[in-house]
Design goal:
This protein is mainly α. The protein has one domain. The protein has four helices and two strands; from the N terminus they run H-H-E-H-H-E.
């Protein structure tokens, strides 16, 4: 399989799994709105629950051949939340419905999220930023310098 078709297949799998993740995350958000929660509170709670769900679905179905960094995944979703919050505020100004505002913000952040996950979280392939390696301590210590 060529790198281009491999990348295209990964994008296809990302969006197939992303539809499930989106339905799950948006479902939590909408459920919380329907019980009277503020849209921003609903977004953060939905986001936290969605992060856990997304980690398992993306690592098992999209980036299964890559080494996942859980720390980078958490950091990427913190940044994703901040970006989503900005887009939610902008969309809430433009759209009269908090349901539509949440959905549009989610679509925009999903595109950004794929790029971040592919490049920084699941490190493999030609676009990956390598994970930092631990420092190696040399075993050739000059014991004479300690006398």
């Amino acid at each position: 399989m060529t790198p281009l078709s491999s990348s295209g297949l990964r994008v296809w799998r990302y969006y197939k799994v992303g539809v499930i993740n989106t339905l799950f995350g948006y479902g939590v958000y909408a459920l919380l709105l329907s019980i009277g929660l503020n849209m921003y509170a609903a977004q953060i709670i939905g986001h936290i629950i969605g992060v856990v769900f997304n980690y398992f679905t993306y690592s098992r179905h999209v980036f299964q051949d890559a080494v996942a960094s859980k720390l980078r995944f958490i950091i990427s979703y913190i940044l994703n939340y901040a970006v989503g919050l900005v887009f939610l505020a902008i969309c809430a100004i433009i759209l009269p419905s908090p349901y539509l505002a949440g959905l549009l913000a989610l679509v925009i952040t999903s595109i950004i999220n794929f790029l971040v996950l592919r490049r920084y979280v699941f490190a493999s392939g030609p676009h990956a930023v390598p994970l930092p390696r631990p420092a190696v301590v040399s075993e050739n210590i000059d014991h004479a310098s300690f006398r």
